[in-house]
Every structure is written in C-alpha cells, then in structure tokens.
Amino acid sequence: MDETKLIALAQQGDRGALAKLLQQHYSFLAKYLLKITLNPHLAEDLTQETMLRAIEKIRLYNGSSAFSSWLMTIATRLYIDGMRRKKRERAWQQEAQAQALRKLKWQADWKGQAWPEVLDVLAGLPEEVRVPIILRHYYHYTYREIGKMLDLREGTVKSRIYNGLNMIRKELDGHETRG
Amino acid sequence: MKQEDERLIETLRSGLGDLDRLAQFDPPDERQLLAMITEHERSVRRQWRRELGMFLMLALLILAMTLMMLLYKPKAYLMFQCAVLVATPLLGLLAAGKRVKNR
User: Fold this and answer.
1) Whole-prediction pTM
2) What is the pLDDT of residues B52-82, one digit of tens each?
3) Residue ranges of the alpha helices (H) in chain B?
4) Interface contact flag, A108 B18, Cβ < 8 Å
5) CA distance, residue A19 to nearest chain B CA (Å)
6) Separation in Å, CA of A127 to nearest CA in chain B
7) Whole-angstrom distance, CA of residue A68 vs CA of residue A24
8) Of A78, A94, A165, A172, which one is least surrounded by beta carbons within 10 A?
C-alpha cells in the first residue's frame, strides 16, 4: 500500500495503517536523530518520543511536506526543546555527550572504520547551529524549509549555517596544523 | 560556491554518512507498534478525562464561591473583582518590564 493511502487510513483511525507507517519511517528517523544528537541512546529515546507525538498528532498532518519531513520536524523540536530545558544540567549533559561520542568511536574502531574528524568538530557545535547545517547539507532542505521546521526566520537559518561552517573550517584547519 | 566550501561540505556529508554504518536501528515489529499505539491512545484519553474533571471541579468551585460572595457579601465581592481587574494588567506589565531588563 502506498504512503498516501496509509496516511489517509491512519488519519481515519486505522491503527494498523499507523503502525505500518511508523514502522516504515523508524530507521530513517533514528538515523537522522543520531546525526543531530551524535548519541545513540538519546537518538533511540527521541525516536520513540517522536513516534508517540506522531500518534497523538497524526490528524494534524496536512500533507504540505513529506511525511518524513513532518516526523523530522517533530523530532528536531523535541530535541531542541529538551536541550533548552536541561540547560541547567549542562555540565552533566556535556559529560554524557562526550561519553556517547567515545562509545561511537569505539564502535567505529571495533568495526575497523576510521572515525571522521569532522564528527568531533560537529559534536562541539551548539545544537542550534549543528541541526540547520545537517538539514541543509546532508538532507538538502532549503533555507525556507529549515526555517519552518525550526520555527526560525530564513535569515537566521542562513547566518547560523554560514557561521557554523566557518567554525567547522577553523576547527578542522586547527586540527590539521596541530596534527 | 567556493571550491573550499564544496570540499568542506563533502567531508561533512561523508562523515555523517559513516554514522549510518555504525549504529543499527531495527524498527519494532508491527505487533509491538500496534500495542504501543493502543496503549498510548488509552493513556491520552485517560489524561484528557482527568484534566477535564479537574477543570470542571475548579469551575464549579469558583462559581460556588462567587455566588456565595454575591449573596452574602456583595460589596466585598465587588472590591475583590476591582482589585483583580487592576492587579492583572499591572502584574503583566511588571513581568514584561523584567523581561526587557533581563534582555
């Protein structure tokens, strides 16, 4: 059954169709969340939270964007809101993030995969900058679409991406010089 | 776009692409998802009923108090209402002022 039909059925209250729809997008969403959080546990938790939010709000989906983009919007807002709320626990959060990153590096090492330096740099950026960069340059969303997803003005998105890329470039150049 | 930028973006893309090979996220099977949906819908309904009950109780309480005051102490009630009318926008203004000052 195609996605449009599944969405229509899910909006009419068909739980089976909704389950199928969520199952189809689960891995994609989790991988997206891993990219923006760089933390597999957090990515998994947020995927489940996003699924629950999607169950509640499926009737509000109006088809103006792809279903996967709608899920990504919910997930991104959950992530950014969560980070804002936990600002007071910043030190603890940074330690957890560093630990998750170390774990990912071990995993890469264990699989014989080289760890891309750029991910370290990306992890050091604030989430308000990291997320738009990933949405623009990995998922190829337009500035306007990113603005809609993050509830920001197009100009703000542009400047965050521009500044973020400069920060990454500077950091990578620094690594090369140190190396 | 400058060549330098393109190179940086390519590095970024390939680094992020590598992450997909690192972590496996297997989707739950349909039965599990169905159970999750049913349970979540039930819990949302329960919460909605609880909130509605709370709202109705509070509304009833406020209505009862208003009627009692009007019946037994109409003057005190009017004074209280005037105080509320003055205090509410005043508190709003104070809060806005504080926000501006903090910024």
Assistant:
1) 0.80
2) 999 999 999 999 998 998 899 999 888 988 9
3) 3-22, 30-72, 74-102
4) yes
5) 5
6) 15
7) 10
8) A94
